[in-house]
Design a protein that fits this description.
Length: 361
Amino acid sequence: FRVTTFGESHGPAIGCVIDGCPPGIAIAAEEFAADLERRATGRTRHTSARRESDAVEILSGVYEGRSTGTPLALLVRNTDARSKDYERIARQFRPGHADYTYWQKYGIRDPRGGGRSSARETTMRVAAAVVAKKWLAERHDVRIRGHLAQIGGIVPAAHDWAAVEDNPFFWPDAAQVAELETYMDALRKSGDSVGARVTVVADGVPPGWGEPVYGKLDAELAAAMMSINAVKGVEIGDGFASVAQRGTVHRDGMAPDGFLSNHAGGILGGISTGQQLVVSVAFKPTSSLRLPGPGLDLDGNAVEVVTTGRHDPCVGIRATPICEAMLALVLMDQALRHRAQCGDVGEVAPRIAAAAPGGDH
Ligand code: EPS
């Protein structure tokens, strides 16, 4: 199961091609809308003001409402591509932005906005993952969810999945939403940006997905999450907190009716344990700021760079559905690979431990 995307943020359209999609999955263009809305810009004052409809057209790979097994191509037309500041920015490098490294690599500057480095590209990952989420749910009873786990220094005081979809921050504690609104309003007025942490989980993943050395499930998840714009860190389970733990704490005890804890985040030796899969992702603060910062122009001269386009004060806010999408894409690929090598789960070895309770993510 392989997804590639094409298109630029300010080109006529963006799209993706999904190869290796099993035949027979019911797919309708309307099914993409809900997740694309969750990710889209211009829906609340806390994200970029660019207003795209993000309507998906199915170009190939679906006949009479079902996937055919041939390449599935999806297209979203750009309808609000106009970044007035990019004429000037095209001659400057923003501090902390990919425009410097793109120029060093390709020597070509696309004056139409962020081009391929824009987070607009993630639209198509979310679209592709609608198919993966559906297949995982129907075929394996796997459920994928995510929430914001930190904005700047603020962390959730409580965890309630029911709250997550009821506020613009994917925040799991309804009591803190007013505080976040105030924080984000002040941040936006100041012209600065802030980082965030997203946590995504998958429930129902059977034991056995992944590979022991090459293609470890955790390695593939880390690569997938790292391929999202602005990501600077990925943790599986306790992640970097494991550094300060003792083995007697970190090891997840086992009992006939399930594991006793889930510090490992559902993966041991690159292979799923059957527990909840837990992945946390760190997003850096947006680099395109209207506050002046030291940068360079195309000739290497020092310039004060000011970006006045439509940018997110916290890219992490819209990243929850994107991280869910990458989790779904990796899991669908792993499920198909596992079946190709070992047959269906339970065929090779009997399942000896029930899944542990989901935990507090
Ligand atoms: C983005 C910059 C802004 C955002 C964009 C991501 O776009 P523009 O290229 O118009 O400056 O609006 O996000 C989207 C358009 C989207 O759909 O996610 C960036 O630099 O990453």
